[in-house]
């Protein structure tokens, strides 16, 4: 058998090809037309869920920041009361200990020099 005649030999033995549309199976271009994305992101609540998640995370961060602020304000009020009361020692409060610490003053000086 000659390789040049192989193509004609196959077509002779198997007969002519039927078109896919006559057999009921869609051809490749028809499949591409049918498989287009018909789902839009706007129909889903994806964007709404993302916004809700962002809002929830924002609220958590805001709450944590306000909790830190309240704690610092409480410590500052305790320091101010100890400072105004002659019998109390302001250096025993948390802020008083931080103000007396040389490490804190060193950090403040480094921040001043770096800015």
Brief rundown of the structure:
The protein is an all-alpha fold and 115 residues long. The chain is built from six helices and no strands. The protein has a domain at 45-115.
Number of helical segments?
6
Helix content estimate:
55-70%
Q: pLDDT average, as an integer?
A: 77
Task: Give a short account of the largest sheet.
Answer: none
**Can you write the helix and strand succession as a string?**
HHHHHH
Topology (elements, then pairings):
Blueprint: H1 6-14, H2 20-23, H3 28-34, H4 46-84, H5 94-100, H6 102-114
Write structural notes for this entry.
- The chain is mainly α and about 120 residues long.
- It contains 6 helices and no strands.
- The longest helix has about 40 residues.
- It starts with 5 loop residues before the first helix and ends with a helix.
List keywords for this structure.
elongated; single chain; mainly alpha; 115 residues
